[in-house]
Every structure is written in C-alpha cells, then in structure tokens.
Design goal:
Elements (H helix, E strand, L loop, with lengths): L11 H6 L5 H10 L16 H29 L3 E3 L18 H23 L11 H5 L2 H21 E3 L1 H9 L6 H10 L5 H9 L6 H10 L4 H8 L10 H6 L3
Antiparallel strand pairs: 1-2
C-alpha cells in the first residue's frame, strides 16, 4: 500500500488547491493505474500495517509447513514413510548407507530463518518515533529475505514430499499390532446402546495391557448390545477405522 495524501496524511495541500474535488478518491484511482493500493489513513508515513499482516500470514504458513516437515521426519525415522533412493545424493558423511531426510531438514531450518526475520519486520516496521524515524528504510530493503527463505523452504519441503512413499506393510503391521485403537469405537456404540459404564469396562480391558484381535473379538461378543452394533464392531479393523478421512482428503473447500 502507498501513501498519497499530503505530508501529514490529511490532503491539506490538495484541498487548498480545490475543495470541490474529492481528493481521496481521485488519488486512489490515480495510483491504482500503477497497480498500487492507497492507504487512506496515514500520518507522516505509510504505517506499514499491511506489511506486518503479510509477514504474520507467511509466519502462520511457515509454522504449518514446519509441523509437516517435523512429522514427516519422524514418520521416516519410524519407517512409516520410505525415502526413495537417489543415485547421486550424498548420505551421511561417515555412513554411506544412510539415507537422510535432508530436504525436510533444510526446509525446517529455512522456515525458522524466515519466521524470525518476518517477526522482526512485523514488530519493527509498525513503530516509528513521531512518524519521523527513518530506521525503517534499511529494514525495508531486507523484507524480501523473509519471503525468499520461505520460498526456499517450500521448495525443499516439496522435494522431500516427492521422495517419500508410504511403507504400507509397516503401517499395516503396526495397525494390526494395536487393536486398542478400536476401544473408542466400542465405547461409543456401548454408550449408544445405553451401557452406562462403557469407559470403565474398556479401561479395565485395555489399560496397561496389549489388546490383540482375539481379545477384541471376545470382548465384543460378550457385550449385551444389538446385533447391528455388534456386527459393526466385529467387521471393524484398525485400518478401517478412518471415518470420513478419504472424503475429507479429496474434498475442496
């Protein structure tokens, strides 16, 4: 946004020339020709609030994508995601066999630098001593760095996403080894069927012990619930308890 409203922002020099002209509208339309928006409310300076808003928006995007990169890193470490091997890519300096999630690591670092810079810009540029402080001039020259580091990080994150593939066998084995994830479904239908101590029963069954498929089936069969609810639970497996995840993933908001 730009300032075009006189030295102190009240259109006094324009108004003294011709009071009949609506200068705020005329000036707005004039600078719009140059693809610049006018800030109608200024003092001696354009207050840079829009820069702060833009910086904070990018910081929020950086935080979301940093979270993505960190989660992807952990999934790779836990072998939930497998990294595709690139012939010419260097792994660990001392362990040639090792494949590092380097793109996600680079992205995380650059997102951090970007957010630190943008946070400074947002705080610094919205303050000026009596609107006469020119310390913003040197800072403004560097605003692009915050966006540039974010752009580099996004590129690295995208590269990382293109290198991973789900380890379906590992995921399936892990799910089948954790039937306790279905205790939520069981207690929900138990409550729906009017059983008052559903949580306590599931707590007794699953807390501190491993719940396998046989124990799960035996418990469901012991419940005094309708055949419809029992069939739902008996046909359920950890990998199928996903609700509307597929629909949500494919939907466009």
């Amino acid at each position: 946004m730009a300032k075009f409203s006189g030295a102190t922002g009240n259109y006094h020099t324009f108004d003294i020339v011709d009071t009949k002209i609506k200068w705020s509208q005329v000036n707005k339309e004039f600078i719009k020709q140059f693809a610049v928006d006018q800030n109608p409310y200024t003092t001696q300076i354009e207050p840079h609030d829009w820069i702060a808003e833009s910086c904070h928006s990018i910081i929020r995007i950086n935080n979301i994508l940093t979270d993505l990169c960190q989660d992807a890193w952990i999934y790779i470490s836990n072998d939930i995601f497998a990294l595709k091997l690139l012939k010419n890519e260097v792994g660990s300096s001392t362990m040639p066999h090792k494949v590092n999630p380097i793109d996600f690591e680079n992205a995380e670092g650059n997102f951090g630098i970007s957010s630190a810079l943008l946070e400074f810009f947002a705080n610094k540029l919205t303050r000026s001593r009596h609107q006469r402080d020119l310390s913003d001039s040197t800072v403004l020259r560097n605003v692009g760095l915050g966006f540039a580091y974010s752009a580099l990080a996004i590129k690295s994150a995208n590269n990382g996403l293109n290198k991973i593939t789900p380890n379906k066998a590992k995921i399936k084995n892990e799910l089948n080894d954790n039937w306790e994830v279905l205790t939520e479904a069981v207690q929900t239908l138990m409550r729906y069927e009017g059983i008052p101590d559903a949580y306590e029963q599931l707590k007794k069954l699953s807390r501190g012990s491993k719940l396998d498929q046989n124990a799960y089936i035996a418990f469901v069969n012991s419940l005094l619930i309708s055949k419809k609810s029992k069939d739902k639970l008996l046909n359920l497996r950890p990998e199928l308890y996903i609700g509307k995840a597929q629909d949500i993933a494919k939907s466009s908001y």
